[in-house]
Amino acid sequence: MIYCVEDDSSIRDLEIYTLNIAGFEVRGFNDAAEFWAAVKEEIPQLILLDIMLPGEDGISILRKLRETPETEGVPVIMATAKGSEYDRVIGLDLGADDYLCKPFSMMEMVSRIRAVLRRTEHTENRKFLTYKEIVMDTGRHTVQADGQEVQLTLKEYDLLKLFLENTGMVFTRDQLLSYVWDIDYTGETRTVDVHIGTLRTKLGRCGELIRTVRGVGYRMA
Question: With 0-12 CB in 10 A as exposed, 13-18 as middle and 19+ as buried, what is 76?
Fold first, then answer.
């Protein structure tokens, strides 16, 4: 089930129609009150969340989602006004998994949603990736640093997984965008820098293992 939170009824109806045609179950909501009432009944598989909403805005909704254990892992794609870099950066800092800039095409929306859902599919195979004091359990989708469990967003997790699978390898920002944000992602390389910064902070002392290679990109130790 996908939840679309959008106060413009024409946009919301088009999103619901398109996603239904693409084979998804969808529910649409005009504001935060309707959305939260639905979340109490059923936790969605993914949320498409507009930032500009009447009453409680999308940033506030995202913050509450990430602070609540039952919803902290639900993927969220933010819809932002074109050119609103501040909103995008704030959303990414709070744990948004991707964003769409209005006006966006319905094909792009479906593509982004499918890409995010592919990355969140559960796997029953347990696989541990370790480097020094970092331990990632890809079966349970958990990370520990210095013996403490670390809560990561989907993109932070995917970045760390890529580094752990390729320790010592240098990745350019464009390569990280391609591998982590899907091959046809067209976002800014600043998106990578924001996520690297938050990932380092959450890993604490272990964050120092993600090194900046000046003029090139990043590598794991």
Answer: buried
